[in-house]
Amino acid sequence: MSSFWIATIGTSVIAFALKYSGHSIPQRWLERPKIQRINALIPIALLSALVAVQTFTEKSKLMIDHRLAGVSVAVIALLLKAPFPVVVLSAAITSAAMYHWF
Amino acid sequence: MRVSRVETITVRDSLSLSLTVGAYGIAFGAASVANGFSVLQSCLLSLLTFSGASQFAVVGVLGAGGSAISAIATASLLGVRNGLYGVIMAPRLKVRGFKRIIAAQITIDESTAVALGSEKRNDDAMRHGFWLTGFGVFLFWNLFTLAGALGAQAMGDTRAWGLDSAVPAAFLALVWPRLENNRDRALAIASIVFALAMTPILPAGLPIIATAFIAIAVGLRR
């Protein structure tokens, strides 16, 4: 089985197990403030790291290319409070333009 | 009259959120195919995993060359919060058996947010908000995933269409609203620096998941 299938099935099984266990376990011990705080911080760390890796790396090498232009435009769009489709499309158009011209 | 008014607000909230999330569904379907997943695998992820951040993470980590294990681990760490939502929703929904299985599957950011937001009106509004939003997001998320996946498949070289930037831009839009204070922003920057510094050293995927430890350290400190 390819790693893509393993990831698809494994992620799905664990995702459901996490959701279902939340509906089934006693409430007490997950409501502690520290658990809640860490739970809010983990997505910030993981998603930021994903943005960086997807923008600046290729096959375990650091690299600056057309993607930096696209993501920079996304940052500007977010600073201007643009809605999600505008953020993604402006990044894609900028990146595609840079990819063609350079 | 009062009852129908509550209904209208709930339906409006649920529908607008479901449609907005649909846009992310297109981005996910496209990102998934751009990172090497098939259209079928992309659709299965949306049907079965049904949690945006986890799905983006699994395709992102594998796309960056990471192993299936680190992809699953990263996605699962992001899925923990759905379990916490389940803890909040279970005593409010009070469902058992098959209904609990369905409720669990649609326990996500959006359904929990609308349910808790409607709670101050009354318990019926809270329950309707949960089920309507859960089913609405499920429907649009899956339809738009298919559209995005087929679209990306038709593109061929996804770089020529800017998709390799659209993916990190989508991640960025996901994390942006979470950066509420200086601590959050410092954590984001630390994670970026750490992940990039470790990329040439650690196997792909590990630099991303290792940043969870930075988050835990920050969370424990204060």
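Chain B has two domains: 2-178, 180-222.
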